[in-house]
Specification:
4 strands, two-stranded antiparallel sheet, mainly alpha, two-stranded parallel sheet, single chain, 282 residues
């Protein structure tokens, strides 16, 4: 048996089979122990132990390498997962911030819209109130205009009869040739003024709907100025004023009655509001 184990050990060493060598060392140690050769038995037991340790270390290294690789792969996967989770978290935070910003903008715009609507409603109410006020004012003006027209019609109607009487009497007195020249001049002025006033009263009473349509006629404006000056000279004399008229004849197409009133009002205002001794008209 010892010879057999020695040959097996030689063959196992040549084949580099660690497990077979370990088994052979164990068998040799047991055989030498049975033969009473303790030294060789101990030596083979040591070789058996060393071979066992060598095989265990080899197996441990063989197992450790894949384990380290797997751990490394796991770490890489964990890092990748953590990176993805961080990206997802950042994306979720961005979405949340954008959503919050949209909500805030919508809320602010809604508040602004409400304020604008309130302002528009207030402005609309003010416009409506102003329109109502203007309508009431216009209605009051229309009523006032109608009332003024009514009063003017009454006054004109009441004045027409006495003014017609003045014109008639002054015309009758003009036909009296026994009057002095100065009296005749005064009565002529009364007669002319009465006729103009009577014409004005008739226009008020017979006012047409279209007030813009004026009847015009050729009128010598210098003659009209002379007539107004002579007519108002007595009023100027009360303030010790003298009206001085200069110019030449000029015939234009106008409404004599209205222009006469304008010129008379201008000369009357000049007499009232000026203290000059001479009032020049040219």
């Amino acid at each position: 048996a010892l010879k057999y184990y020695l040959e097996a050990a030689s063959i196992s060493k040549s084949t580099q089979n660690s497990n077979n060598i370990k088994s052979v060392y164990k068998s040799l140690a047991q055989t030498y122990e049975m033969l009473g050769n303790d030294n060789l038995s101990l030596e083979n037991y040591k070789k058996y132990g060393l071979m066992t340790d060598s095989i265990m270390l080899a197996n441990k290294d063989a197992i450790t390498i894949p384990t380290d690789y797997l751990l490394k792969e796991r770490d890489e996967l964990l890092k990748t997962e953590n990176h993805l989770q961080n990206l997802y978290l950042i994306f979720a935070i961005c979405i949340a911030l954008i959503s919050f910003a949209i909500v805030v903008i919508f809320y602010k715009n809604n508040q602004k819209s409400k304020k604008h609507n309130l302002a528009l409603n207030d402005a609309n109410r003010q416009i409506i109130a102003q329109n109502e006020y203007l309508h009431e004012t216009l209605t009051a003006l229309e009523h006032s205009y109608e009332e003024n027209n009514r009063v003017m019609q009454i006054i004109a109607h009441d004045l027409r009869s006495p003014m017609a009487a003045i014109v008639g009497l002054s015309g009758f007195m003009i036909e009296d040739h026994e009057l002095s020249e100065e009296d005749m001049e005064v009565i002529s002025l009364i007669h002319s003024s009465g006729k103009d006033s009577l014409t004005f009263i008739s226009q008020i009473l017979e006012k047409e709907v279209n007030e813009g349509a004026l009847k015009t006629e050729p009128v010598d404006i210098f003659e009209l100025l002379t007539y107004c000056t002579v007519q108002l000279q007595y009023k100027a004399s009360d303030k010790k004023q003298t009206i001085v008229l200069s110019g030449s004849s000029l015939t234009i197409q106008i409404n004599r009655e209205k222009i006469w009133r304008v010129i008379s009002n201008l000369i009357t205002n000049a007499i009232i509001y000026h203290n000059n001794v001479y009032l020049y008209i040219s």
